[in-house]
Specification:
Shape: globular
CATH superfamily of the largest domain: PK beta-barrel domain-like
CATH topology of the largest domain: M1 Pyruvate Kinase, Domain 3
Number of domains: 4
CATH architecture of the largest domain: Beta Barrel
Distance between the termini: 28 Å
Helix content: 10-25%
Strand content: 25-35%
């Protein structure tokens, strides 16, 4: 087990803190990165002492986001950061970093040597007064980078140093003003946690084994500030999700048994698949799908239509796929398979999954047409169960022909919560049966005007239940699933309504089984090198890819006898995905729903059945 290095405990009884300045503020709207943002960071020193109480913290003061009663910052950090950033010290007055207390202490006293649950006992004219308890550490955010005129990347440096401030709660009230002094009473906690570790853990790499140890140690501290608890809990859940991403995954095809089937409508049926051998099933992310092979050798991908909190972090008890009877494969499944039959299945895959990386996600808009609701349904179930998203507002926009084709599970499986707004469109409502305002909201399909109207007004999020934060309507994320034409049209409408392209994720399905990827050779153009050295890590294999041979990366691996996994060979199922460790690859433009280029980041995943190198050296995690 790796142990985190703990800083040398400062002899706190010998430390005298002096209040240099005090400040109070109220949130106002500032334009930050071209967006109106509610913040209380802009302030100046106050001319009068602060009045503090146990219940209300600082009288006349309110924070925009964090729930700590008092924020303190060491005066020596002003010299450090202005020197580090080549900024004129005179331009940064006390309270520039948004602190309530600017504190002068010994040079070697900092957030790295002040510990959670330490107490600061203040004195005024020789009499003890206010008592504050350290309850957290500042986690530097985009508002701080904006305030200091620095890029967002600078925040990682701030977090690593720990020089970003301390949060305290009021244990005994009174007043604090410039010139007051305090002594530190060290915590009696058996394992002392430095205040700086909050920011250091929040910004630490998921690859670093120390990150988990830090997170667990922080979360065991009694009385931890709520926002810190949320941030570090999210970090720990990201670690758990990452560690379990391949939990129970199997290679190749595996027989799963149909243990239950449910007719959701006249043309839609759900199949519940479980392991007949009682071996664990692979964990999965909401929005992912199963690749299934039928006796006819037809390979089809069907979305997993259910999700529970354990689906991502442990072995789920079953998979549910919901299939609409359309063409040969789905008709065969409907007519020939029942409880007790077995299907050949590959491990769950797919990249149409929620973004869980943000501390405070904006509103999420889920848009589906017909059976495209199946991955959206699992995303919604996850949305209101997940640590990060459960208090985030969501809008579901679903398009169906009418109540006859509207799926019964739609209403049963949706979470009941005030944070979810459901909007239904019927393209062909049944006269005398489907009642607008009761069964559906609009006739037809969503229009450009509909999305412009939806995204025009601002909305509020309140993740910590402290102060609602107002966000512009186009500060939202969107997920779209449906037929290709529907997805393309809705994407255009969202972009016209000023929703950033990067905030839109899509997945398509097609009724046309004749759609196939054109041969790789037809799409190998001038941006592809003549040769590329491809390294398959895990197999210690290097091989040259040659443009004139026009092979996909999957075909190259097969030719070399590596036996890579594959499924549909059309770029849809994801069975052939490999992680790019170095370099880049391009996806043919006619592969439906795929990005045309991989980035050069190590987290990029490409579908090798339809990808070709666009660099001199390509390294893949095989």
């Amino acid at each position: 087990m790796v142990e985190t290095p703990m800083p040398q405990r400062y002899p706190a009884d010998d430390a005298t803190l002096t209040v240099v300045a005090v400040s109070r503020s109220q949130p106002v709207t500032q334009t930050i990165h071209s967006q109106p943002t509610h913040t209380a960071i802009v302030r100046s020193p106050s001319s009068t002492p602060l009045a503090l109480s146990v219940d209300n913290g600082i009288e006349g003061h309110q924070s925009a986001i964090h729930d700590a009663q008092v924020h303190a910052f060491f005066a020596q950090h002003y010299d450090y950061w202005t020197s580090r950033l080549s900024i004129d010290r005179a331009t940064w007055n006390w309270a520039f970093w948004g602190e309530n207390l600017t504190i002068q202490g010994p040079d070697n006293l900092s957030e790295n040597t002040v510990y959670l649950n330490d107490r600061w006992v203040f004195s005024h004219e020789g009499r003890e007064g206010v008592v504050l308890e350290v309850c957290g550490g500042r986690n530097p955010c985009s508002r701080l980078a904006w305030r200091c005129g620095q890029p967002h990347s600078w925040l990682a440096e701030v977090a690593k140093s720990g020089f970003c401030g301390i949060y305290l709660r009021v244990v005994r009230g009174g007043s604090i003003g410039p010139g007051d002094t305090a002594r530190i009473v060290p915590t009696s906690d058996e394992v002392a946690v430095p205040a700086a570790s909050i920011a250091q853990c929040a910004y630490s790499s998921l690859e670093d084994p120390v990150t988990r140890i830090m997170a667990e140690r922080i979360l065991h501290v009694p009385g931890l500030q709520n926002m810190n608890k949320l941030v570090i809990s999210r970090k720990l859940s990201m670690l758990q999700e990452r560690e379990s991403a391949k939990h129970g995954r199997w290679k190749g095809w595996r027989a799963l048994e149909i243990v239950k089937s449910v007719d959701e409508s006249s043309s839609v049926k759900s199949f519940y698949l479980a392991a007949p051998d009682n071996e664990p099933l692979a964990s999965y992310l909401p929005g992912q799908f199963l690749t299934i092979k039928l006796p006819s050798d037809q390979i089809r991908c069907w979305s997993i239509s259910s999700w529970s909190p354990s689906s991502t972090t442990s072995s789920p008890p079953f998979y549910r796929i919901t299939v609409k009877k359309r063409l040969s494969a789905s008709r065969y499944l409907h007519s020939e398979y029942s409880v007790g039959d077995r299907l050949l299945v590959r491990s769950p895959s797919g990249s149409f999954v929620p973004d869980w990386s943000r501390e405070f996600p904006p509103r999420q808009i889920y848009i589906s047409a017909g059976i495209g609701m199946t991955p959206i349904l699992s995303m919604l179930q996850a949305h209101f169960s997940h640590t990060t998203l459960k208090r985030t507002p969501a809008v579901l926009i679903h398009v169906a022909r009418n109540s006859k084709e509207d799926i019964l599970m739609f209403g049963v499986d949706l979470p009941f919560t005030p944070f979810l707004e459901v909007i239904k469109f019927y393209t062909s409502p049944i006269t005398g049966v489907d009642v607008r305002g009761q069964d559906f909201d609009y006739e037809g399909r969503p229009s450009a005007v509909f999305f412009t109207t939806l995204l025009a007004p601002s909305y509020k999020i309140d993740p910590l239940q402290i102060t609602p934060i107002e966000l512009p309507g186009n500060s939202s994320g969107a997920y779209i699933c449906g037929p290709p034409a529907f997805v393309d049209t809705i994407r255009v409408y969202l972009e016209e309504a000023k929703l950033p392209s990067r905030a839109i994720r899509t997945e398509t399905f097609s009724n046309d089984p004749s759609l196939r990827v054109s041969p790789i050779k037809e799409d190998v153009n001038d941006d592809v090198p003549e040769e590329c050295l491809v390294r398959f890590h895990g197999k210690a294999k290097e091989v040259k890819w040659k443009k004139r041979e026009a092979l996909s990366i999957l075909q190259l691996a097969e030719r070399e006898g590596l036996q890579p996994e594959f499924g549909c060979r059309m770029g849809h199922c994801g069975a052939c995905e490999m992680k790019v460790l170095k370099g880049a690859a391009r996806i043919p433009g006619n592969v439906e729903g795929q990005e045309h280029d991989s980035s050069e980041e190590a987290t990029t995943v490409i579908r090798t059945c339809c990808a070709v190198p666009t660099c001199a050296t390509l390294e893949l995690d095989f």
